[in-house]
Design goal:
Blueprint lengths: L5 H20 L4 H5 L1 E12 L2 E3 L7 E6 L4 E7 L16 H9 L1 E11 L4 E9 L8 E9 L2 E6 L7 E8 L1 E3 L2 E3 L10
Length: 185
């Protein structure tokens, strides 16, 4: 096999560089990257440098963003108390309080500001009814299969961070994301 000369090496570098440039120019938009099903890795509030995990250290949940600009989120503590009555309509005051403070769900419409890397949400409905009809803006950061969403000012008096991981599927079978491997935040 003949060794590549200087022109051969330059040709290889040109081809590889061209492939890289054309690949990056066809990169997916932020909205295209966000579309999909995501599992909750972590959710916390930063209050003056102190980290508060409202849904505990191992929250459960899922977020779906569809191609038509619709979304749904369900988030809860890793463990919620079971109702002694085994009937959700007859929970005690303490059981109901634990569930309300340990979970939230909402749905609505979203749009993406590609330049500012922001997600604009419009809540059509929420288990926290004060958000019904409300618009909120969040900052978005994607790294591989990790999605970090930041709400800079919240009702809770801090910056809210939601860390998600893309759920993977093989055929029709869901492959669980590894929740133990939390991304650096």
């Amino acid at each position: 096999m003949r060794a590549l000369g200087q022109n051969g090496i330059l040709s290889v570098v040109f081809v590889v560089t061209s492939m890289y440039i054309s690949g990056t120019s066809n990169a997916q938009s932020l909205k295209q990257q966000i579309v999909g099903t995501w599992t909750v890795v972590n959710q916390y509030i930063d209050r003056d440098g102190k980290r508060v995990e409202s849904f505990g250290s191992n929250p459960k949940g899922m977020v779906v963003y569809d191609t038509n600009g619709k979304f749904i989120l369900v988030l809860q503590r890793g463990t919620l108390p079971k109702f002694a009555s085994n009937n959700r309509l007859t929970g005690t005051a303490e059981e109901n309080k634990a569930i309300v403070q340990g979970s939230v769900a909402y749905f609505g419409r979203y749009s993406i500001d590609e330049k500012e890397r922001k997600m604009n949400l419009h809540y059509d409905g929420s288990t926290y009814p004060n958000w019904d009809g409300v618009d909120q803006t969040r900052f978005v950061e994607i790294s591989g299969d990790d999605l970090k969403i930041v709400l800079p000012v919240s009702d809770s008096g801090g910056t809210v961070h939601l860390v998600l991981r893309r759920m993977k599927y093989v055929g029709k079978t869901k492959i669980e994301s590894k929740r133990q491997a939390k991304p650096a935040v």
